[in-house]
Specification:
The complex is a heterodimer of chains A (332) and B (344). Chain A has 332 residues and is mainly alpha-helical. Chain A has one domain. Helix content of chain A is 71%, strand content 4%. Chain A contains 15 helices and four strands. A two-stranded antiparallel sheet of chain A has the order 1-4. In chain A, helix 9 crosses helix 11. The termini of chain A are far apart. Chain B is an alpha/beta fold. Chain B is 46% helix and 18% strand. Chain B is built from 14 helices and ten strands. In chain B, the strands form two sheets. Chain B has a six-stranded mixed β-sheet, sandwiched between helices. Chain B is globular and about 95 Å long. The N terminus and C terminus of chain B are likely disordered. Classes of the chains: A mainly alpha (332), B alpha/beta (344). At the A-B interface, helix 8, helix 9 and helix 10 of A face helix 4, helix 5, helix 7 and helix 8 of B.
Chain lengths: 332, 344
């Protein structure tokens, strides 16, 4: 029983921690791309990497101001979105998917390569760039506090506070955009581009705007992640994160403002909960060592999440916030 | 006029009302007569110049590999009239529509609308000039509500720009006006009760109505309808026909593709016939069924002409006489002839 409570507490920290913010921002961006506009962006993590490394390189390599680093990260995400969109958005949806997935993997390999090491720090990455941000905290960052049964440092709380504020602001932005005529055009593009063209809307421009906007959200997510971990390592930005963000989005409900937010929190909660509980059960001998060893837990928890997602798609395909009638229209 | 419900209603009413309705009908029909009258004295030949052409095509060709889908030397479309575009499957009607609305680019040729060259414009630019189209396979935006579908059709919306979308104060008044306009149109098309339903839940016929109503939200000058009556039940066909006639009465130029000849004869002022990418005939609807090129295109050059009533009677009489002759004899072949006779 104590194990269970402990697992709940630790998973609760994951529920509110910076990783949940990271996935929430990635998923909000994907929601703008895929949920509202119908763009298949399979390389969201590339935007996050540019965001994180935008700060890291600017501060630790070039000695620039932290906030200048933020601007550089956002601008490079915009440039990436334009580069990806210009050749592909006139074509069918599949082309963007191919190009984004290749770019995400390619960029990571370039960043970790030997020839890029003088700038990106190669496989070891960069660190010590978030000091001036942590110093902004209005409280002592070294002391630890008991929150909801687990221990948070002042710095962690500060990152979480800023991060969740950012999530709230982006969600508000998405909410306002999607109830405006702009959002109506974008949703119509998801349904049928040609019909929208025939009604006098410049579909290409709208798709580009949506791609840039979602990319900026991804970059913000990458910044929070880099600040939260205090380091930027290319291999942290594996493209598997893009698909975890997709999972979070579908769990919460696509094309819903709060879908990606709650989805990310729950995804992180489930992963952490399964991890802690399974380890405790193996230690106590409840689960015999022959069946499952503690080294397998890291993999098994993803299997559990996968099974959970399958059950979700069978019994609640619209996700937590979605509208079942809306999702079922696709079956026609 | 079994089609027009208002006319049926007026039969039941008093004689004064009938007179009034008839007058109103005449009044409503006046623009149609204008277009018809303007086209009446034109020769029935391909590429004939129209008195007031809205759309003019010159030397338009489009090939897909070795196949020439469209090859039109010269074609003019009369303003304010209903022009029917007919032809067998694969004649290039839809390709011509795609070219005219910027959805496809031609290999050669130019065309203009109101003297403005349309050749190099993209679809949304063509639509902004006032040339809107519908699609053969209806494109209702399934996961938008009927009302949202309608609002999408409105032009010059301030809230459709990214930055201004963030400031509702700028676009709220316009949105309200558009909503009122949309509700008026939905009422006209009898879809107002469905305004909050997803367009994906509508029936096929309702989607056709919605697509037409949505196109009208943009206040078009030219409406291009690609098979508006395909797959629609006869009652709804009549109501769609009424709506198409209304467009003409509002002064719009209508170009439509249709396969149902009764429909074409009923509403068009001018008919253009295409076959194998070329315009093979044009003229008023009554001229088309007499045109040998058209008959050949539809039925092949070697065909059996349909029987008139007199011919049918004569054939029937011949067969009966034959049967009578056979019955007087005792041939086994009589059964065969008999069965043929009864099946006719």
């Amino acid at each position: 029983m104590a194990d269970l409570l402990n697992a709940f507490a630790i998973a609760g920290k994951a529920f509110f921690g910076f990783q949940a913010i990271f996935f929430a921002l990635l998923a909000i961006g994907i929601n703008v791309h895929f949920g509202y506009t119908g763009l298949l962006n399979f390389g969201q993590i590339a935007f996050a990497m540019l965001g994180g490394f935008g700060i890291a390189i600017s501060v630790s390599q070039w000695g620039l101001n932290f906030w200048l680093g933020v601007v550089i990260g956002l601008v490079s995400a915009v440039v990436l979105a334009l580069l990806l969109g210009l050749p592909t958005l006139r074509l069918r949806a599949d082309y963007l998917a191919i190009v984004t997935i290749a770019t995400a993997e390619g960029l990571r390999l370039v960043f970790r390569s030997v020839s890029a090491t003088p700038v990106t720090g190669g496989t070891r990455g960069l660190s010590a760039f978030n000091g001036s941000f942590i110093d902004l905290a209005p409280w002592e960052t070294q002391t630890r506090h008991r929150v909801l049964g687990t221990s948070w440092s002042g710095g962690e709380l500060w990152v979480a506070l800023v991060g969740w504020s950012l999530v709230a602001l982006t969600s508000l932005l998405v909410w306002q955009l999607m109830r405006s005529p702009w959002g109506r055009v974008v949703k119509a593009i998801r349904e049928d581009e040609d019909a929208v063209r025939a009604l006098g809307k410049n579909v290409y421009a709208y798709k580009m705007q949506a791609l840039v906007l979602g990319g900026i959200f991804g970059a913000l997510g990458g910044m929070i992640y880099a600040i939260g971990t205090g380091s930027a390592i290319p291999d942290q930005y594996q493209n598997a994160n893009t698909f975890l963000a997709y999972a979070a989005l579908i769990l919460g409900g696509a094309a819903r403002v709060l879908g990606p937010v709650l989805g990310s929190m729950l995804l992180l909660f489930i992963l952490q909960f399964a991890d802690t509980l399974l380890r405790a059960l193996i230690e106590n001998g409840v689960i015999p060592e022959g069946l499952l060893s503690s080294t397998d837990v890291a993999q098994i928890r993803f299997v559990l999440v996968g099974i959970g997602l399958m059950l979700l798609l069978v019994f609640r395909p619209q996700g937590i916030f979605g509208d079942r009638r809306e999702v079922m229209l696709d079956a026609r | 006029m079994p089609a027009d419900p208002s006319a049926q209603g007026s039969h039941a009413a008093g004689s004064e009302e009938i007179a009034a309705a008839r007058q109103a009908g005449q009044h409503r029909a006046a623009p149609q007569r204008l277009a018809q009258a303007a086209l009446k004295d034109l020769p029935w030949e391909v590429g004939v110049a129209k008195p007031d052409a809205a759309v003019v095509l010159d030397g338009v060709t489009r090939t897909f590999g070795g196949l020439t889908a469209v090859s039109v030397d010269h074609l003019e479309i009369q303003r304010g009239g209903i022009t029917g575009l007919i032809g067998p499957n694969g004649a290039g009607k839809t390709t011509l529509f795609n070219l005219l609305t910027g959805f496809d680019q031609p290999n050669t040729g130019t065309w203009s609308f109101d003297g403005r060259d349309l050749g190099k414009l993209s679809p949304h630019q063509v639509a902004r000039l006032g040339v809107v189209r519908t699609f053969q396979l209806t494109k209702a935006l399934s996961r938008l509500t009927v009302l949202q579908n309608m609002l999408l059709g409105a032009q010059g919306q301030r809230g459709e720009s990214f930055l201004r979308a963030l400031l509702p104060g700028i676009w709220r008044a316009q949105e309200k006006a558009n909503t009122e306009k949309a509700m008026d149109l939905l009422q006209r098309f009898k879809l107002d009760a469905k305004k909050d339903d997803f367009a994906g839940t509508l029936s096929g016929g309702q989607r056709k109505l919605l697509e037409m109503a949505r196109a009208l939200m943009s206040d078009p000058k030219v409406v291009m309808l690609d098979e508006p009556m395909a797959g629609v039940n006869p009652a709804l066909t009549q109501s769609l026909l009424g709506h198409v006639k209304d467009l003409r009465e509002e002064g719009m130029t209508v170009i439509f593709v249709e396969h149902d000849m009764d429909v074409v004869r009923d509403i068009s002022d001018w008919v253009v016939v295409m076959a194998a990418g070329k315009v093979i005939a044009e003229g008023p609807p009554e001229s088309i069924s007499q045109n040998q090129a058209v008959v050949d295109a539809y039925l092949g050059a070697h065909h059996d002409a349909p029987l008139t009533v007199e011919e049918e009677d004569r054939v029937l009489a011949e067969v009966q006489a034959e049967i009578a002759l056979e019955e007087s004899g005792t041939s086994s072949s009589s059964g065969v002839i008999n069965s043929e006779g009864t099946s006719r």
